[in-house]
């Protein structure tokens, strides 16, 4: 039943509509009296929705799992409670029978599988939403990993994308999210990301890229890929004997120094994240193996991000601006990196970034009042959500990769000084990419930059300095919140009514097209009531407009 196209579309769209109506009704009910208790109820509602999404994704599989993983990277548009539920959404699903996998394999190779491989484990060693992996022995005696795409997964994901287009249209047309984010751009980003994962030849190219990239490194490597045996739905690569990098027993048994391994890991991923080119976008412990000799092996290059040459230049400007406390340059770099949409309050964002930098560089601040720190970041997060700010997909993936990497790093060495380890690599990167403008020479500019960095990172910031303009900030925030409340009161009734009409109309049409009488009569009834609700909302909206005048 879960593979039936109409069923999947109805389940996905109806779940989205249910969530939107719950949110609209909750906001309408509490719009005039939002208290701390209301906020707790709001968080509870979002948590219930996130849990329902997670359960539905694990039941339907397909795109919903990948969409959940993708949305967990979008802190710019998703509530924190949703991200907490989705960020560890497990990609492991029950494996398909060997008979079905064998059909895919032999169709891709156009010959019996036992004429190509000598031996295969009939049970997969790993199973995920798009493919499953088998351990095989090739005719030359090499042990390899064979990844086979799940039968029918491409058709299932294409169906889910149809449902997602309906949901995106509803969000774009009838919710404020359509004004805060470029939803169709997000759709295209997801389409491209999943499209790459469905094409194993893309993963093959990425694997070869990283294999070549790390040829000159002594302590990091990637598997060898058998390109002649690989197709769009079949991937063959070297079998890697190793353990997860967080397997501390394995490290101890092989006398591998955890701290030294952590430093190497920092070097590997800073090299990826700071330089133009591709970076591993899913560096969770299962994709980072350690061999007995301590070599780090990167595997699974299905999810890859890429930083262009032009973006690398703007990233350099962003880092320079933060280090030199030139926040006009920081805002300019963010604009060029496509973080800021039209209408963003640049002065407010400069103050926010300054406060954030001061907080991070102030050891006294972080140690003195943990509650105050949490409140500060809650305010910053609120501003980010209210401002027209959007993370471009490559930087959303970048942020998720960095977050995953840091979590892995601190399992290895909880006491590592990440700033101290990163500083030499960061300075080297700035030196190589620095383009002086008003200085006599690159060397002079670089020395001046180093002198600017040292006091910034060495001198603790005080709370008063980090929050040196609290009065103006609070006044602006209060004015902004009042203005938003008035606008919400003017638009919410009409918007909610239109949502009812459009959704019930969609399901009425579906009922007619697919001859579902129950769906037709129930949605038609809802459509009728929605129309009267719309008339009532128009009348209430006019009264509110007159009152405002």
UniProtKB/TrEMBL annotation:
Q: Where are the transmembrane segments?
A: 6-26, 497-514, 520-540
Family stated for the protein in its record: Belongs to the protein kinase superfamily. ADCK protein kinase family.
Annotated keywords: Membrane, Monooxygenase, Oxidoreductase, Transmembrane, Transmembrane helix, Ubiquinone
What is the protein name for this chain? Ubiquinone biosynthesis monooxygenase UbiB
> Gene3D superfamilies attached here?
Transferase(Phosphotransferase) domain 1
Query: Where is each Protein kinase domain found?
Result: 119-519
The reply to whether DNA-binding figures as a keyword in the UniProt entry is: no
Signal peptide positions (record): none
Q: Which GO-annotated molecular functions does the record name? A: ATP binding; monooxygenase activity; protein kinase activity
Q: Name the InterPro entries for this protein.
A: ABC1_dom, Kinase-like_dom_sf, Prot_kinase_dom, UbiB_kinase
* Pfam families (UniProt xref): ABC1
